[in-house]
From TrEMBL:
Pfam families: AraC_binding, HTH_18. GO terms for molecular function: DNA-binding transcription factor activity; sequence-specific DNA binding. Keywords: DNA-binding, Transcription, Transcription regulation. Residues 195-293 form the HTH araC/xylS-type domain. InterPro entries: AraC-bd, Homeodomain-like_sf, HTH-like, HTH_AraC, HTH_AraC-typ_CS, RmlC-like_jellyroll, Tscrpt_reg_AraC-type_HTH. It comes from Paenibacillus piri. SUPFAM superfamilies: Homeodomain-like (SSF46689), Regulatory protein AraC (SSF51215). This is AraC family transcriptional regulator. It comes from the Bacteria.
Amino acid sequence: MVIEMFQFQSEKALSILESFASHPGDDRLQFRVHYWGINPMHYDNHLHKHSFYEICYVIDGSGRYLDDGHWFALEPGTLFCSRPGIWHQIRSDAGMYLLFVAFEPDSAHSDPQALRMYQTLHTTDRFLLHQANHTSTALLWQALMRQLEAPHPLWKETLSPMALALIVSFCSTFRKPDEDMRTIPPIKTDARLLKRACVFIIDNISQPLPLDSIARYLNISGRHLSRLFSEKLGISYIGYVQRERVRHAAELLAYTDISILEAAEKTGFNSVHYFTRVFAKQTGLPPGEYRQLHRSTLDPR
């Protein structure tokens, strides 16, 4: 995978990042970015260590990286993580195009459980990855750089979430795959099937929705699908479909000017008479009165 050089002035791009992506975070994790780096010709630095994390991404060129007394080759597509307290150094005779970011979690404003999960990055032994251009970290970093190539009216709204996604991605990129899987709560097959069935029903609410056809779509038996609705939602399949048809029809009557006939057709009822009977049974009002009541509520004039 060959990455074209980014079309921006490095110093200007860094100023934008420092302005809009220095404190990325959400309601679970907050980070302090000490500095962003975009260096098209990075050569050598001194042996040193940090109290924070520094992640580097080699875009072009080659060199060597010293980590805790051991040298590792650097080449295009290499990602590496300098962990807090570890002595490290970069050397390159011809220079490398290097992206880097130095940061630390803001423990005072982060959820303790999320913070503990992220701090496992501190002890990882998977701190250098070759041929990493295909990883989520590399792709997110490239996307972040592309955003800096042209003026953007919503830089704050764009760059901060992208920076957060990039920094959070480091945790999974530099951990062993089996460690990642242990942190993901398993989603039961039945729950996944039921969710797909519900989404299909809502997306196709104007169509006939016989149980057997949905079951075939999900590659399960009709009996299995029926059991999922009764056991997981406490309602029959037919009852759920009817409830969703009425719910959608109620929204159409309250918020649009379409006729009652159109509302019935758009929600899969094959006759106005049947629609009126089912709607009144579930809402307590026939469609016309329901529309009048909700229109007067929305517009008291």
